[in-house]
């Protein structure tokens, strides 16, 4: 007799960690390129990937 098991994945956590790492790289780019356009792109990347990390957690959290 077999029993049903619920299979869960940690996709939300993994996705959040990966996107959080990219957001951290964007924040570092913002810090390194302080008064330049590089800082603006770093800020944009940090905000975008941090937002996507939050979305990933909300989509895949069970």
Automatic annotation (TrEMBL):
Q: Which InterPro entries match?
A: DUF7525
Q: What's this protein's name?
A: Uncharacterized protein
Q: What is the lineage of its organism?
A: Archaea, Methanobacteriati, Methanobacteriota, Stenosarchaea group, Halobacteria
For this UniProt record, the keywords arranged alphabetically read as follows: Membrane, Transmembrane, Transmembrane helix
- Where do transmembrane segments lie in this chain? 12-34, 40-61
Q: Per its UniProt entry, which superkingdom is the organism in?
A: Archaea
């Amino acid at each position: 007799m077999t029993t049903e098991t619920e299979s869960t994945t940690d996709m939300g956590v993994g996705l959040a960690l990966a996107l959080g790492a990219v957001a951290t790289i964007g924040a570092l780019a913002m810090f390194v390129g302080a008064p330049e356009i590089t800082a603006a792109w770093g800020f944009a990347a940090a905000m975008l990937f941090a937002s996507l990390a939050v979305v990933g957690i909300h989509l895949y959290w069970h």
